[in-house]
Amino acid sequence: MTHPMSPEYHAQKMPWRELLAKALDMGYLSHKTTTCGLHIHCNRDAFGKYEYQQEEKIGRVVYFLEKHWCEPVNFSRRTTEALERWAARYATISQTTKETYEKAKRKRMGRYVALNLGNEDTIEFRLFRGTLRYDTLIATLQLVELICNLAICSTDEELERLSWSEFVLKIPEDKRELIQYLKIRRLYVNELAQQNEEV
Fold this sequence. Notes:
Layout: H1 7-12, H2 16-25, E1 37-43, H3 51-67, H4 70-76, H5 80-86, H6 97-107, E2 115-116, E3 122-129, H7 134-153, H8 156-161, H9 164-169, H10 176-184
Antiparallel strand pairs: 1-3, 2-3
Helix pairs in contact: 3-6, 3-7, 7-10
């Protein structure tokens, strides 16, 4: 768990390489356990000044995850059992973003969902399996940042039309870790890459 920080701070100032190397030196495990997840909180204020603005944009995040469920699950490295226990799906996909979000909120599934909406100040991505690999951590932070930015900058209609392939093709070139990780997981327009073992 970390203190709140911007994506830029994560990328440029947080000494993740050193911190993860120290954890490995001390014998810590993350990916190779059954109880460790990588949870990423995003401040609700990032989605707008007023609650109605926040709700509209957070609804787009829910819709994106529900529509493209298989791809984020593949990205997450979670097993089916771990997803069901720690990061369940709302399974509320509808024709529109608003309908999907309303159904998700009505389900009241508690905190053990892929996108926990129950916190007052944040939304919590619980989908991802833990890792002590720097590249995987940064790729995950970059994916969450891009999903949130997409929700902020798109209309409902634009998001509803967007395919996974269109989403990944718009990833900026400076998100190298994310692009490489998507290739490794076979989620990047049929391009493959090799990766070292997770820890």
